[in-house]
Write a structure and sequence with these properties.
174 residues, mainly alpha, disordered C terminus, binds fe (ii) ion
């Protein structure tokens, strides 16, 4: 699919319906897997427990980010597509929203890198199978997250900002 030229509401549908859903699904598997690894190998202040805590912090941030996009940011973009005169007359909201979402992308990607580093340094030998499973699921989650960030930063946000500028012309704002 050529997302640069697809209708913008289809792009949003793809992001929420496919990418966000994939991320939530995989994150749930990671949590479950980390819990299993921690039950078997962990203990207070163990590397397993610290990795689980790092993941929980990452997930809390990402969950909030996904919710904010789905409930506030994407509806704002969709409202521009409706060409409602009231919405077009208030164009200032989109760019700051996109910049904030891009900054949050950097933050969650950095946090996930921390989780990956922790998973790569399995603290027991031979590596516990539960730990190998965690590492593989986290790798998969990183792929999903990078894919959606590429689509949002590279396709949706620039196109939404361009839409705002079209809507912001004096004629359109009247
Ligand atoms: Fe996002």
């Amino acid at each position: 699919m050529d997302w640069q030229h697809a209708p913008l509401d289809h792009v949003i549908d793809e992001i929420v319906g496919i990418h966000h859903a994939r991320i939530r699904e995989t994150a749930a598997l990671v949590r479950c897997s980390l819990r299993n690894a921690n039950d078997r190998w962990g203990g207070p202040a163990s590397p397993f427990e610290r990795t689980r805590d790092t993941f929980e912090t990452f997930w809390s941030d990402l969950d909030t980010h996904l919710f904010h996009e789905a409930s506030r940011v994407f509806p704002a973009v969709r409202s521009f597509l409706d060409e409602s005169p009231q919405v077009v007359a208030t164009p200032a909201a989109i760019l700051p929203m996109m910049l904030r979402m891009e900054a949050e992308h950097e933050d969650v990607l950095a946090r996930l890198r921390q989780v990956r580093v922790a998973c790569a340094a399995c603290p027991v030998a031979p590596p516990a199978p539960e730990w190998a499973e965690c590492a593989e699921l986290v790798r998969r989650l990183a792929d999903h997250l990078e894919a959606v960030v590429t689509m949002e930063n590279g396709v949706l946000f620039p196109r939404a900002i361009a839409l705002e500028h079209v809507g912001a012309t004096p004629d359109a704002a009247l």
